């Protein structure tokens, strides 16, 4: 993790996708606001690989967090998520792992992630992870992703 803007190594640079989520570097910048507020990161076309069949899995991810001292740099976050394209893991491990990695790197006051996965074997799987308690008075909108209905 970086501590200053001049130490950002991915923003403004031509960077390929990391080979794995473990190799991905999540850069951070100082939080510009001292009062509690919420940041939402949305990845409506997240992909990973089924660890059993090798087939692609697709999800709509919504990450909400109340930063403390750090915010994630958005290009680094995009590259991190892209590193899952060739990563084999179950929906639960991908979703909770992303949340846990953000908590480890950013130490937010509060974080939640919703992984809204498209059906595998006819069953949609939604996975949710939360860290900490939301600060009192923090406005937290609904994630806005409706339950999967197929063509119904």
UniProtKB/TrEMBL annotation:
Please give a single GO biological process term from the UniProt record: tRNA queuosine(34) biosynthetic process
Active-site residues? 50, 57
One CC-aspect GO term = cytoplasm
Keyword terms: Cytoplasm, NADP, Oxidoreductase, Queuosine biosynthesis
Task: Assign the protein's first listed, main location to one coarse class.
Answer: cytoplasm
Which protein family is it in? Belongs to the GTP cyclohydrolase I family. QueF type 1 subfamily.
The record lists the membrane-crossing segments as none
Designated name of the protein = NADPH-dependent 7-cyano-7-deazaguanine reductase
Going by the entry's taxonomy, the superkingdom of the source organism is recorded as Bacteria
User: What gene name does this entry carry?
Assistant: queF
By its UniProt entry, which Gene3D superfamilies does this protein fall under?
3.30.1130.10
Q: Name one GO molecular function term.
A: preQ1 synthase activity
